[in-house]
Amino acid sequence: MNAVAATEFLARSTTLTSVGWIGYIVIGAIAGWIAGMAMKTKYGLLTDIIVGVVGALIGGFLLSFVVDTASGGWWFTLFTAILGSIILLWLVRLVGREA
């Protein structure tokens, strides 16, 4: 990895959408609640919200390599967060079965 690629990678990994950190946490909490209902989890609301926030961060980071997430706005961030949360809840459920 050359210096330009490393710089672009670091810049992309620190880029959030236009909603900022607090907005990301609020949207992640909402997304976790929606994802928990969609996946019919039995983990509880607090766990769904935590997974939602983490899923929002992971989903936003991964999607930033495909599209420009920095100009996405609230609806795009919510969609990304819900998608990331559903994937993360699915992985948590998958790992929970094997344990």
UniProtKB/TrEMBL annotation:
Membrane-related topology note: Multi-pass membrane protein
Swiss-Prot/TrEMBL keywords: Cell membrane, Membrane, Transmembrane, Transmembrane helix
Q: What is its main location?
A: membrane
* Pfam families linked: Transgly_assoc
Question: Which stretches are transmembrane?
Answer: 19-38, 45-67, 73-92
Q: Where in the cell is it found?
A: Cell membrane
Among InterPro entries, the record links this protein to: Transgly_assoc
Q: Does the keyword Zinc apply?
A: no
Q: Which GO terms describe its cellular component?
A: plasma membrane
- Per the record's keyword annotation, is Transmembrane included, yes or no? yes
Per the record, the similarity remark reads: Belongs to the UPF0410 family.
Name the record gives this protein: GlsB/YeaQ/YmgE family stress response membrane protein
